[in-house]
Design brief:
Elements lengths: L5 H8 L7 E7 L8 H16 L5 H17 L11 E7 L7 E6 L8 E5 L5 H9 L3 E6 L3 E8 L2 E9 L18 H40 L4 E5 L2 H10 L6 E6 L8 H33 L3 E3 L1 H9 L3 E7 L5 H11 L2 E5 L1 H5 L7 E5 L2
Parallel strand pairs: 5-8, 8-9, 11-12
Antiparallel strand pairs: 1-2, 1-4, 2-3, 5-6, 6-7, 10-13, 11-13
Length: 363
Amino acid sequence: MSQPTLDDARALSEWAPPMGVVSVYLRFDPGDRGGAWRTELRNGLDRLLEAAKEAPHERRVALRETARRLAERFEDGELRPPPRGEAGFVEVAERGGQERWWASGVPPLVADCVQLGERPAVAPLVELSYLAEPRGVAVLSAERVRLLGFAEGALEEMEDWELTVTSLDWRERKSAASANPARTQGVSASGHDQFGERLDHNRHRFLVECGRLAGHQMERGNARDLLVFGPASDVESFNAGVASPGVELEHGGDGDLISTPTGRLLEPVADAVTALRARRDEEIAERAVQEAQGGSRGAAGPQDTAEALAEGRVERLVLDAAIPAAEQLVCSALASGARVSLLRGEPAQRLAAAEGVAAILRY
């Protein structure tokens, strides 16, 4: 199993087995030793079987066997669940049905879910793919830069660069007494000033070069965001070197974290990522509402947005993840190649006047 991507969700949305699909989203709490998720899974399967008791015999048998396979998948006590979540899609079939599973280092935002449908329920998978996007983290000081990767709720050290100062002309040297002490002191001060200027110049060049290298690393790893932690002046030099157009720079904080162990960096990094997501959700909701109100490149409400999706005019679908029409609209967006922003909390409330749905149009 692997972390889901938007391409996975798009391919999955086109899958329509003859008797349908059971979609499963599970969240694992590392502190829960009672296995509450197992109870939720069993209860969800029982509800599906109860709802299908009046279905044709062939369908009832196929669904019963599908539920049995799903339950058996998690019966093995040695089977350890993924770190925080799992998403699975199982074809309803008496035997030989296809299954597609993804693990996740971050939990799905939906509650534990077992759902039967003609097609997989992909909206939560789209949301999960965005939550687990890889990001870069740069922690820096004037003479050292650490580059880390942040994905699936975990940090990994990638690079550690350090400036080495080889010039020794800053050291005080003993010399014969001068007949003019004032002149000697002036020369000494001038030497220190020159060294300080050279040191500042070398630090700037070092940070710019580290920024360039970090930008290339992000491009190779398909990471869009680079969160930078450090003093503002050092961050400015570092950012000047990141010449990668596909990388967006964000200042995560100005605290001195350069010597902080990786494990203790996780909390401030996770907080910065959460704040970044919230700010971007606010911005995209505001933009979608403004475009819809302007009437040129926007649509608002389920009906107008659905029509724009059917015509292939939507550049980005923006919607409240909790509305009933979310699944259908997301599938239409995936089919037309539109980007999707699923919002929750305060950003989603900005769409209330548009019944939870808005779109930014291509034309």
